[in-house]
Amino acid sequence: MQAFVGAGGDFQRLDADFVRVLEDVIDALIARHVITITDLPPEAQTKLFSRKSYRERRGTQALTLFGDGDFPA
Question: Please, which domain of life does this record's source organism belong to (predicted)?
Fold first, then answer.
């Protein structure tokens, strides 16, 4: 089974990196007013807020989903 999913933590690292990309895409869509956070299912909103909160506590740069509206173009 390990040979299928990758040796060691490589697959997990790639998976985590991909999740971060998806978060950034969602942030960009929200910032450009293509979607709003409330367009997402409640479970997805909860997970995004939890991850953002964690990233902000760690000092990792993240967009604010409900901010002052001053978003990058």
Answer: Bacteria
